[in-house]
Amino acid sequence: MFKKKALIAYYSLSGNTRDIAQKIQKLTGGIIFEIKPLSAYPNNYDEVVNIAQVEKEHNTKPELIDNGDISFYDTIFIGTPVWWYTFASPIRTFLTEHDFTGKTIIPFCTHGGGGESSTFKEIEELCPNAIIKNGFVSYENTAKLPEIENWLRK
Q1: Residues linked to residue 136 through DSSP beta bridges, in sequence order
Q2: CA dist., res. 92 & res. 104, Å (int)
Q3: Per-residue pLDDT tens digits for 46-57
Q4: DSSP 134
Q5: Rg of the Cα trace of the chain?
Q6: 113: closest CA among 16, 29, 40?
Q7: Do residues 81 and 110 lie in contact, with contact meaning Cβ atoms separated by under 8 Å?
Q8: In angstroms, rounded to a whole number, what is the distance separating the alpha carbons of residues 137 and 102?
Q9: d(CA 16, CA 31)
């Protein structure tokens, strides 16, 4: 399906995005890379919602434990939960600290009821020199393997 190994980079707070990333890995044989902020977010949902709103308003780029190396990959899946109608702040750090020129980005997201909102559009805006493919959207982690496989074939 892919000429070279793909990178599947994702951030997941609750595990929903991780589950989708693992399903993509199973289907593609890609390499998984978990994006982890240096300071973990709290487990309390309401606290995270408040933090996410402030981070969105300030275009916060939280420091990451490891920002990874994308140089070996032509295709990079980027997964995120949807926070305040866009990607989680650790994704902003990952996207802005790498050069995606000429690389293919395939975004995916999980949400709790609001859909993708502007998540994919904003990824495209931060990576203007990348080739952005159609993203995959899952309500929480309800997507089944055949559904993801159909998306990948497109």
Answers
A1: 108
A2: 17
A3: 899 899 999 999
A4: P
A5: 14
A6: 16
A7: yes
A8: 24
A9: 18
Q: How far is CA 140 from CA 28, 68, 98, 122, 136, in A?
A: 21, 26, 28, 20, 12
Tell me which residue has tokens 């709290």: 42
How far apart CA 73 and CA 84 sit, in angstroms, is 30
How large is the angle between the packed helices 119-126 and 89-96, nearest 10 degrees? 20
3-state secondary structure (DSSP) of residue 137: strand
Question: Which of these, 108, 30, 24, 38, lies nearest to 67 by C-alpha position?
Answer: 38
- Look-up of token digits 């939280």: 62
Instruction: Kindly state the tokens that stand for 37.
Output: 């902020």
Domains present along the chain, CATH in parentheses: 7-153 (3.40.50.360)
Beta strands, E only, 5-114: 7-10, 31-34, 75-83, 86-87, 104-111
Q: pLDDT tens digits for 81-134?
A: 999 999 999 999 999 999 999 999 999 999 988 889 999 999 999 999 999 999
- Return the structure tokens found at 108: 């995916």
pTM confidence score: 0.94
